[in-house]
Design goal:
Structural class: alpha+beta
Distance between the termini: 24 Å
Keywords: ATP-binding, Lipid biosynthesis, Lipid metabolism, Lyase, Nucleotide-binding, Peroxisome, Steroid biosynthesis, Steroid metabolism, Sterol biosynthesis, Sterol metabolism
EC number: 4.1.1.33
Strand content: 15-25%
Catalytic activity: (R)-5-diphosphomevalonate + ATP = isopentenyl diphosphate + ADP + phosphate + CO2
Mean pLDDT: 91
GO cellular component, one term: cytosol
Radius of gyration: 21 Å
Order of helices and strands: EEEEEEEEHEEEHHEEEHHHHEEHE
Strand order of the largest sheet: 1-6-11-7-8
Bound molecules: ligand DP6
Low-confidence stretches: 353-359
GO biological process, one term: sterol biosynthetic process
Length: 359
């Protein structure tokens, strides 16, 4: 390989996902093994996605990464775990057109450059790490010709960020917590694809794009150490909710889906409040959005919209169909007019979507 100066590039694009039954709490911090199963919906890549290009060349002398144009350190265990796991599964690569031939054993010596962009605010509670690690693992697997199925790749993405494992699929996805100590059975499976329930419209009301004060990782560590409510949630509540949610999704039962989604979001934030010191991810605007949706759903007699909030104040609103989405937007624009000095100033509209390989 000495005199070669080639570069092999792969680009992939991965959407983020939003949990409707939340993951909160790890039973193993290093392997990122959760205390309960979770279920999410994958968004449309046009709106909230990460695009990652990975490159390999004999002229690179170290692994390097740029996030949104700024170089970041790859020394963290999470990046190293993902790189190691994919390198261990690398296969021979032969590109006759470009005169590139990489033998399986060469991957141990070759270095990788990674450039990743989010088309939405990073670390603002919009699941940027989910799209980021899913995209990184997917792109690296393509680059190194790893032959793993997406479920197997999800178990690697999980070691970058728990929620990332669910972004390897479109539609509705379940992260099975698994039972084994090595985490090999803690992976994502697709429940239904993005076509199954295409009436749904997802609107994200960006209440604040500021970086959150308590990261999910730190927050859930404190919760595991101090919250009694978490144990009740993980052992008693979530297992039943997972079964009911799967049923609601499969039968496209919006009333049950909305009731479970809102209840689970509220319980996740109750668990945050039950943490010492308490964690407040939602703010007054988030609470006003909840009241607005609850009031509307009650007045209609049947739910029109479900709400869910992750580790930040931004609302993810899932409307039962386009008509409900239009009415919701009208209400949001009326109650929270988008002006530069208000704290609710943009809406991202998306459908559910599938992972797109741009490589
Ligand atoms: C509230 O996946 O960001 O969005 O595994 O420590 O990287 P780490 O945490 P992360 O946590 C996401 C938490 C959540 C709920 C969810 O997506 O299920």
């Amino acid at each position: 390989m000495a005199e070669q100066t080639w570069v092999r590039l792969v680009t992939a694009q991965t959407p983020t996902n939003i949990a409707v039954i939340k993951y909160w709490g790890k039973r193993d911090e290093t392997l990122i093994l959760p205390v309960n199963d979770s279920i999410s919906v994958t968004l449309d890549p046009e709106h909230l996605c990460t695009t990652t290009t990975v490159a390999v060349s004999p002229s690179f002398d170290q692994d390097r990464m740029w996030l949104n144009g700024k170089e970041i350190s790859l020394s963290g265990g999470r990046y190293q775990n993902c790189l190691r796991e994919i390198r261990a599964r690398a296969c021979d690569v032969e590109d006759e057109e470009k005169g590139i031939k990489i033998a399986r054993k060469d991957w141990e010596k070759l270095h990788i450059h990674i450039a990743s962009y989010n088309n939405f605010p990073t670390a603002a509670g919009l699941a940027s790490s989910a799209a980021g690690f899913a995209c990184l693992v997917f792109a690296l697997a393509k680059l190194m010709n790893a032959k793993e199925e997406n479920s197997q790749l999800s178990a690697i993405a999980r070691q970058g960020s728990g929620s990332a494992c669910r972004s390897l699929f479109g539609g509705f996805v379940k992260w099975i917590m698994g039972k084994t100590e090595d985490g090999s059975d803690s992976l994502a499976v697709q429940l239904v694809d993005e076509k199954h329930w295409d009436d749904l419209v997802i609107i994200i009301a960006v209440v604040s794009s500021r970086q959150k004060e308590t990261s999910s990782t730190t927050g859930m560590r404190d919760t595991v150490e101090t919250s009694l409510l978490l144990q009740h949630r993980a052992q008693e509540i979530v297992p039943k909710r997972i079964v009911e949610m799967e049923e609601a999704i499969k039968s496209r039962d919006f009333a049950s889906f909305a009731q479970l989604t809102c209840a689970d979001s509220n319980q996740f934030h109750a668990v945050c409040l039950d943490t010492r010191p308490p964690i407040f991810y939602m703010n007054d605007t988030s609470h006003r959005i909840i009241s607005c949706v609850e009031k509307w759903n009650r007045s209609e007699g049947t739910p029109q919209v479900a709400y869910t909030f992750d580790a930040g104040p931004n609302a993810v609103l899932i409307a039962r169909d386009r008509k409900a989405a239009t009415q919701l937007l009208q209400k949001l624009l009326f109650y929270f007019p988008p002006q530069p000095d208000t704290d609710l100033n943009s809406y991202v509209i998306g459908d559910k979507s599938i992972l797109k390989d741009a490589g």
